[in-house]
Amino acid sequence: MSLRRRALLKMGAAAGAAMALPWGTAADAAAAPSTGHGPSPDLHGFVPRVFAAPGAAVRPKFRWWWPDALVDTDEVAREIDQIAAAGFGGVEIAAVTHSMRGGETIDPVPHGWGTPAWVRAVEAALRQAKKRDITVDLTLGPAWPNSVPSVTPDSPAAVKELAHGTVTLTAGQSWTGAPPAPGTPPAEGVTKQQLLLVQAIRITDAAARPVLLDRTTVTDITHAVTDGELRWTAPDDGAPWLVIAYWERGSGQRPEGPHHTDPLSYVIDHFSTEGTRAAIEFWERHLLPPSTRKLLRETGGALFEDSIELETDETMWTPALPAEFEKRMGYSLLPYLATVVERDEDPVHAFGQDLDKAVRRDVIEVLSELYVEYHLKPFQEWAHRLGLRLRVQPYGPGTDSMWAAAVLDISEGESLGFKNADDFRCLAGGRDMGGKDILSNEAGATAGGAYGTTWDATLRKLVVQYAAGVNQAVFHGFAYAEAPGAAWPGFAAFSPYNGSGGYGEAWGPRQPTWGHVRDIAGYLSRTQLILQTGVNKADIGILRQKGPAGTGLGAPWFTADGVPVGWTHLFLSPRLLDLPSAKVRDGRLAPEGPGFKALVIEGDVLSGKDRTMQIDVAEKLVGWARAGLPLIVIGDWSDARVPGLAGPGDNERLRALFTELLALPKVRVVPDRPYVPEAIAALGLRRDVEYAQRSWLVHAHRADREADYFFFAVDSVTKNSATTRLNHDVTLTTRWRDTVPYRLDAWTGAVEPLPLYSRTDDGRIRLRVTLEPGATAIVALVRPGAWADRPYVSARTSEAAEVLRGAGGRPEIRDVRPGTYRTTLHDGRTVETVLGGLPEPIPLTRWSLTVEDWQPGARPSQTLKPRREFTLDAPAAWPAIPGLEDVSGIGRYRTTVHLDTPWTGGYGAYLDLGEVFDTFRVTVNGHRLPPADQLTPRVDVGPYLRRGANTVEVEVATTLLNRLRVANAPVFGGAKRQNYGLVGPVRLVPYGRAPLT
After folding, report:
1. 979 Cβ neighbours under 8 A, 6+ residues apart
2. Which of 305, 839, 876, 880 has the most Cβ atoms closer than 10 angstroms to its Cβ?
3. How far, in Å, CA of 409 to CA of 431, rounded?
């Protein structure tokens, strides 16, 4: 299996109690998770051995916000202990102080990023992380973008801009004086600017925006500049002329937030060797003494760089661009420079739409190559020499993020900045074609969500991103305890922010939910274990003509219509087709990777769907189609042209290739996106996972030598109308005729053979998935003999609501309705089972409630927790209970229910909690139940009930927002109260159970 080496070394042995997954039957009755009796001892595959207790390598991580180096090493070690004890696998140390404004400052001389104090604190974190067997990642600079204090705005290594100044001359008018000065003043600290070029160009339309210029009149008049003075006369041709002077200078961009260093840090040039070299040299001289190097090799994980947020009022630039452009594109950029320059990120001049698009596209292509070759690859090689990986968010200015993801050790997206699941599928396409194993996600960030972000909402978003290819979550974030000016509950990187609550969330012991987080971390760890096992599989590759991520643009037909019936897809940029994985075998593209069954081609969706394609890409497509790869071409390509500036005969060559391509038998052409299903049918394509009807399910498919793994989630984010438990009829393709289906419960670690499924005539596995909105399930189709040596009794169909495994692994039926149920077993026998009369559901209305009321203490990080007692005649949201309107904390609900015969023997019950805010745990008769699915507030309490009095306890934890509304009213007072607590209604719902014999 293709699981990363560190994971193989750190996985724990499988252990712990088991809980059955929520797999229902064709019955319409609601079903719920139920308790089983643990995995069978004869499971011997790798995954079932480690699933219950995954090691640190596959656990989620935290972005750990420090107030620069103003940290105490004992507190650093204490926070590592807190993170490890909560079940997380690592941290990323980041100096982020956006919440500190005005007089709330940190002296950067003793406590700045990169100082000896910073190094000591990092070493303290590394030492404690080594003891707790978790990893430590380090950001490549203070905040973002990547910067170091050894660079000044004028340094060759600093980020650059191309500023421009203009003057308009009438026909025959002369100019004597300095070349036109830049239209925007230089940034603070920029003292030098160098004249690159002066041009004169006839104006075609001065009123147009951008100003329209005559490309044929571009004239280099740099030679007319002598001793800093330009002397030039416009042609007397009856038209106005524009004189443009281009100036290279530093952009003066600094990393985000207040000053982190002394001297100030400035952003490095991300497109040159000078910028990369300056950063590496600073690290080598100041941040990597032998003791730190040793610790990094022992417990370091990765170096991290945030997204490419290069900001300038003028044009993003690097001094080597003209020479690199001509070398790579085969023509000089300088005659076209007027259409490249920008102001406030908008073009200022134009030559004509087609020409402008072509040149601007070529500039971005060259910058993509410079970014990867001169920035990412050298940083990655250096990280490897330190024993680390490189993790980067490789997107921003339109560069080829998909290709960067193929190159990087670990690429990362973000839940806040990315617009939808397809943005993650862009990076996943690059990862999978590059043979990499991780797609990370800066998870859980919410605008305006500080101290009001729930784990419920966070998980609902994250599971959809998992289905899109993400398999590592780095949560945003865990905050260091205190900093100057911080108010209760402590320092947070982004709260307050510009006078409001700011960005969430600051997780950690300051949150009432922290006591429940270990259950959530275990669930995420098991999910990530599966999603990092083997290789990612997808049905369809979507070829885009450009490779940026974060655009929010979906796939033709598949995003809106294909995903709801089970199709999966990833995006590919042209450069990915040059990788070693890009080969065709048995009609599949990248057979050892995603194994695409077909490739879909349409025009450039980032440029008006222009029918553009590189000649070398068209040549590959012809060869692959001849080798048996199905292609679906959208639209009329008779006018196809190459992207960028075309050379002589390029467009004719491309059109000839398309004529050849479209005549091949494995190619289908459709007029527009809605007609894609016709091409699918004509090509005989079949998806690996088939939903019987349009579904709110999304899924990911992984495969190794032992099994195919299917992760399912209900998309309650995109499909925000999904509010009730849903039944899904699903058919799975398998590689082995006698495959054994297993279910894996990510909440409890249970692994056991699936008790209810059927086989189709063509050998596929059919089953029904019953899930609450946002909930997930995992199924493995296992190679015979890989996980177990003896057969298991399973059912093919049943009239009962559920078929589960009871004591000794024997299948049994369960239902909340009395009656006689017919079940057909896989050996062909039909069994009739009688479930006798069942008691009516019991409303649980009267509760005693003990509330830990979390309040500010004497220090910002100190919380007082006085207890308050209440008696409730019915559950209700805390704001509706007098005295709890603005209280946050932990509520412990307790009630007693008396059960008489027949509540013993063949009966059990579900505890249906109704509405719960936010996290919860359940205890029955002193037995704390296994971790409950936090998206499914229904718990099987049957094994813990007894005749007579039964004590039921529900512990519910909240956010801090309601208390902060009054404790810090200037910042949080305008926020709406959240409906905390066990809101209900709460019922004990009996079920009947009987073994299938």
Report:
1. 877, 878, 879, 915, 917
2. 305
3. 9
Residue whose token pair is 């409906």 = 979
Strand segments (E) across 314-425: 315-317, 342-343, 346-347, 349-350, 389-392, 410-414
Q: How far is CA 306 from the centre of its chain?
A: 13
The 3-class secondary structure across 135-150, one letter per residue, is EEEEECCCCCCCEECC
Query: Is the peptide bond prior to 145 cis by the omega test (within 30 degrees of 0)?
Result: yes
For 107, what's the count of Cα atoms within 13 Å in the CB-facing half-sphere? 3
Paired tokens of 646: 């075309």
Which of 93, 9, 100 has its CA nearest to residue 46? Answer: 9
Distance CA 997, CA 991 (A): 19
DSSP per-residue codes, 624-670: HHHTT--EEEES--TT-B-SSSPPTTHHHHHHHHHHHHHTSTTEEEE
697-703 and 758-759 strand pairing: unpaired
Mean pLDDT of 353-368: 97
What DSSP state is assigned to residue 596? B
DSSP alpha helices (H): ranges in 91-220?
Answer: 108-111, 116-132
DSSP 784: T
Q: CA–CA distance from 316 to each of 162, 250, 373, 394 (Å)?
A: 6, 10, 18, 17
Each residue's pLDDT tens digit, 871-890 = 999 999 999 999 999 999 99
CA–CA gap between residue 308 and residue 278 (Å, rounded): 18
CA distances from 879 to 240, 514, 962, 966, 983 (A): 70, 22, 9, 13, 11
Q: Which residue has the tokens 């692959």?
A: 624
Alpha carbons within 13 A on the beta-carbon side of 841 = 15
**CB within 8 A of 500, min separation 6: which ones?**
448, 971
First to last CA, the chain: 38
Give CA–CA dist 762/807, Å, rounded. Answer: 33
Could you tell me the pTM of the whole model? 0.94
Answer for the pair 182, 163: CB distance below 8 angstroms, yes or no.
Answer: yes
**Residue 722's pLDDT band (cuts 50, 70, 90):** low
- Rounded to a whole number of angstroms, the CA Rg of the chain reads 31
Query: What pLDDT shows up at residue 478?
Result: 98
Contacts for 216 with CB less than 8 Å, ≥ 6 apart: none
Element holding 863 (H helix, E strand): strand 863-864
Report the C-alpha gap between 767 and 761 in whole angstroms.
14
Asked whether 35 and 19 are in contact (CB, 8 A), the reply is yes
What gap in Å lies between CA 905 and CA 908, rounded to an integer?
8
Omega before 496 cis (within 30°)? yes
**Token duo for residue 485:** 């000016």
Alpha-carbon gap, residue 148 to 260, rounded angstroms: 10
Q: Answer for the pair 446, 400: CB distance below 8 angstroms, yes or no.
A: no
Tokens describing residue 996 = 């299938």
User: What would the two tokens of residue 677 be?
Assistant: 């299903």
The DSSP annotation for 753-779 comes to: E-SB-EE-TTS-EEEEEEE-TT-EEEE
Predicted pLDDT of residue 42: 41
- Supply the DSSP symbol for 878: G
- Distance of alpha carbon 778 from alpha carbon 730, whole angstroms: 13
- Of the candidates 22, 40, 90, the one whose C-alpha atom is nearest the C-alpha of residue 525 is 90
726 forms bridges with which residues in the sheet? 771
Contact status, residue 23 vs residue 767, Cβ threshold 8 Å? yes
CB proximity list for 865: less than 8 A, separation 6 or greater: 852, 853, 854, 855, 889
**How confident is the model over 217-243, as pLDDT tens digits?**
999 999 999 999 999 999 999 999 999
Distance CA 120, CA 132 (A): 19
